[in-house]
Specification:
Oligomer: single chain
Radius of gyration: 37 Å
Low-confidence stretches: none
Length: about 160
């Protein structure tokens, strides 16, 4: 394998951006140990990529670190807060003894959803319109297919007259 061709093949660039397979990576690392030219080219490429990344980097807004540090300090200094309610093993909420109302779990006997009467008519209209549009689509599809067949017959008839 010629080293210049290997370096020019783009495998080094793919390795630097992490787009090589395990086999290609293993091969490159083995060749890097044997050929100092590949190691030098890889080092130069990594340096160039770092320069590009540093040049394209967007600096954070001023005082961002101060705001982050203030938020972290608030979290550390925050007093120990008691929860308003606690959770049982059954995942049911129970209120604390501070006279809060208890939460009641709601169970439904049916799996059907109730909707307002006006929406029933809207759903019915959408369903009927869907069927009408489906009928029109089938009709026009068949008409189009028949028209194409007629055009084909006319073309063959015209060719036969010549």
């Amino acid at each position: 394998m010629e080293i210049k061709k290997y370096i020019a093949s783009g495998i080094l660039e793919a390795y630097v951006v992490g787009a090589t397979s395990e086999k290609e990576t293993e091969e490159l690392l083995q060749l890097k140990k044997v050929h100092p030219r590949i190691e030098r080219a890889l080092s130069e490429l990594e340096t160039d990529m770092e320069r590009i990344a540093a040049h394209m980097a967007v600096p954070p807004p001023p005082r961002l670190w101060d705001r982050i540090e203030d938020n972290l300090n608030e979290l550390v200094i925050a007093p120990d807060i008691k929860p308003l309610r606690k959770v049982d093993d059954d995942y049911n909420y129970k209120s604390q003894p501070n006279n809060e109302p208890e939460y009641i779990s709601v169970e439904s006997e049916t799996t059907h959803m109730r909707i307002h009467k006006a929406w029933k008519w809207v759903f019915a209209a959408v369903f009927i319109l869907g069927k009408i549009f489906l009928g029109f689509a089938i009709y026009f599809y068949l008409e189009n297919r028949q028209a194409k067949e007629q055009i084909q017959e006319l073309k063959t008839e015209i060719k036969a007259r010549r």
